[in-house]
Structure formats: C-alpha cells, structure tokens
C-alpha cells in the first residue's frame, strides 16, 4: 500500500508538471489564453466534466466502465425538465438528481446482479435512455430560466466564487474522502485488483458495484443540471460524446481499464489538463471532430503506456 501511495504521488506530480507546461505552451501560442473570460470558460467547462469524472473514477477503480454518462446527464435533466412549469426549483432539481441516481442504480444491478458486462450494459443504457429522453420531450428543449435556484447552480456566486466551483470542490472532497479514506473506497481497490479474492474476505462485491454505478449516475445528473443552467435550456441532445472525454480524464488521472488503480487527486489534475487542451485547440481554430481525435489518441496512448509498464515491472 505504501508503494501504491508513493506511485500515485509521483504520477500526480508528473501530471502537475504537464499541466504547467501546457499552460506555458498555450500562453506562448495564444496570448488570449490567460484572458479572464477565457479562464472562466475553461473553469465552467471542466467543472461539468470533472464532476462526472469523479463518478467514473469509482467505477473504473472497480475494473468496470460506464459509457452511458452523457445520456444519463441528458435523460435526468429531460425528466426534471418535464416539471419546469411547476415553478419549483427544488422539485425539478430533486427529480433530476433522482433520475440520475436511479439509472445508475439500474446499471449497477445489471452489472453486479444480472452479470451483464459493464461495456454492454452501459452501451445499452446509453441508447435506451437517450431515445426515451427524446420521446419524453418530443426532442424539444425546456427552459428553466424562471427557476432561480436552478439557474444559480451555474450562474450564481457566493461572494466572488462561482457556485459551480463550490459544487465541484464539495463533490471532489466527498469523493476523495469516500475513495481514499473510507472502507467502501478501499474495497473498490481490492475488488478492482482481484475480485475473486474478495469472495473469501467478506467484501460484498455486488453491493459495492451498485453503489459505484449509482454514485456515477448521480454525478452525471448533477453535471447535466449545471450545464443546463449554464446554457439556459434543458436540451435532450446534451452530453453526446461526453463519455469519451470523461474516460480520457480518468485514464490520464491514473486509472486503469483493468481496475485497481486511480485516484480522485489524479482525476482533478487530469480534468484541468483536458480543459486546457480542449481550450487550446479551440483557440487554434480546430474543429470538434479534430478535438475528438486528440482525446481518442490520449486514451490509446495512456492504455499503451500502462501495458508497457505492466510488461516491464510485472
């Protein structure tokens, strides 16, 4: 365990160095990078993806994956958006978060109890709830602009600090405590490293997988809520392609597709790195398709590096 913590520390330091190098490169390529408005744009973008990445980190530590994160965000918001006319922010927020938690729970049950591989389970969920969201809303956006508390999740401030930043920090701290210091989090690593061995140690694999997927769904709903408030509309088309970026963040942050590795600290730094990369590509005028190619290359590169390390060190 001591070696693992030391290894994580080294990886996080390397990520911080990479982050600062990217910032220097971005500043030299485009002086507009450090403009206040641009920095705000980076922060608002990474807050949304980072919150989802915290949930994905828990799932991937277990050796599982969730491809439905973008669809969960869209479906949850679409479900809550059906009740916008109620005029109650708290009611709409509750329904949005509950929908995400429930879909995540169903993913967990499918993977843990029914034994559907997480890749297949969440791929199916992605398609089903995306289209259910379209049917529920007839493909039309809802507008929560009259819901003051709802809108404040993206546009409000506490003093000089934007509320999305506060939400991000709270979710990060809760995730950090859960993953690093709680019995549940430590069990995530054990299951991800050797799930068969846990059968003889009293760890309830099924329950923990359901918890991880449920929390991931909750994070997706929260992120979708913030994004909807930021845009001023609840769009059932939201979140397309988010899964690729979120997986890139978590892998870059030190998680493995094979389980047993990853940290919330690494995910935080990786979120900032991906945010800087995406923003730099935007400043260079690259298309969304080109940006997706870069993100995909990051995923492939990190997996290849992981495999090379495993072969070298065993």
TrEMBL record:
InterPro entries named among the record's database cross-references: ABC_transp_permease (IPR001851)
Transmembrane segments: 12-34, 41-61, 91-113, 119-136, 157-179, 207-226, 238-258, 264-281, 293-309
Organism: marine metagenome
Keywords: Cell membrane, Membrane, Transmembrane, Transmembrane helix
Pfam families recorded: BPD_transp_2
Protein's name in the database: Uncharacterized protein
Record GO terms (molecular function): transmembrane transporter activity
Subcellular location: Cell membrane
Presence of the UniProt keyword Transmembrane in the record: yes
A GO term from the CC aspect: plasma membrane
Membrane-related topology note: Multi-pass membrane protein
Keyword set includes Transmembrane helix: yes
